Structure prediction request, 160 residues.
Amino acid sequence: MVSPSLSCPTYCEAKIDETWYLRQVGSGPNQNQVIVVNSTAPATTSFGMIAVNNWAVLVAPDPNAVVVAHARGLHVQAGQAGASWYTTFSLVFEGPRFNGSTLHVTGITGFEGQWVVGGGTGELASAHGVIKHKILTGLGSAVENYRQLDTGILHPANGK
Prediction:
């Protein structure tokens, strides 16, 4: 009989338990999202609208803060009532920590909610977890907002 300790390898995970800030800019010189398919639904719903994004993810809700990563992907207005954007993107890290590694993130984006992290590459291969998100009120403008991201992401401790 094989001993369980010999047949089951030890697997250690590290946790990313941090707060980041996603900056969305809908128009102007710092625009980081653009509509690629307009909706034919009534203007009050925008149902079916598709936009691509390259949102900056920062260490603070400030346009001059250090950039941790960029959220590169798309969002689709999938609900017929209220803001119900289906969002999927690769969170592409830059800088000294996790440089070039990615996380696959998906979920519904309303005023607040949760996105699931279901995979990654590089140091974050096989990552999994949840990112809680909410729009910060009183910051930004009509074309810009900041979304607080509270992370709870597990990934292999050795990055493999």
